[in-house]
Write a structure and sequence with these properties.
- This protein has a single domain, classed as Alpha-D-Glucose-1,6-Bisphosphate, Chain A, domain 4, CATH 3.30.530.
- With 170 residues, the chain is of the alpha+beta class.
- An eight-stranded antiparallel beta sheet has the order 1-2-8-7-6-5-4-3.
- β5 and β6 form a beta hairpin.
- The longest helix is centred in the last third of the chain and has 22 residues.
Amino acid sequence: MPAVIHGTSESRGEDRWRLRFELHLPYAYEELWPVLTTRDGLRGWLAEAEVLERRLGGAVTLRWLNTGTVTTGHVTAWDVERVVEYTLTLHEKIRFHLEPVGTDSTVIRFVNERSGTEAERLDCLAGWHEHFELLESSLEGRPARPVDWAAWTDAHWSELRSDYASLSGA
C-alpha cells in the first residue's frame, strides 16, 4: 500500500487553517466506516473514544493514547457510510468524507478546519499524517505501534514535522 501523501493546508484568515488529506485505500467504504465511527475502530489508529454517540448531535470525548490529551465535542455531520464530522474543543472541525471507487476501493477526503499559529499548523499536519499511517497499518492488520500506546515516541512525528516545515519554507 502506498505511503500517506503529504497533506496540504490553506489559510482561512488570520490564524485559521484548513488542513486536507486524501487517502486512496483498497477497501470498500463499508469496511472503512467502522474504523472512523466506532470505539474499536478509532482506538486502533487515532484515540480512545470515551464517549461516542453515533448520531447527528451525539456527544464525543476522545483521549489521544499517545499524549493523553482529551477533547470533547459533538457529531456535527452524520451520513452513514459517507460522511462523519466531529467538532471538538481541541481540533475543532474534523471531517471524513468517503467516496467509493468501484466496489473495492475508497477515497477518504479528510478536512480539519481549525485555528492556530503557524507552528500549530505544522504540528497538526505532522500529527494527522502519522495517524493516517497508523490507519493504513491498522487496516493491513499489522499495527505500527504496540497495543501499549505508552510506548509511543514522537521521533517519527518530529521527522514529519520537519518535512512539513521544509515544504512550507518555514
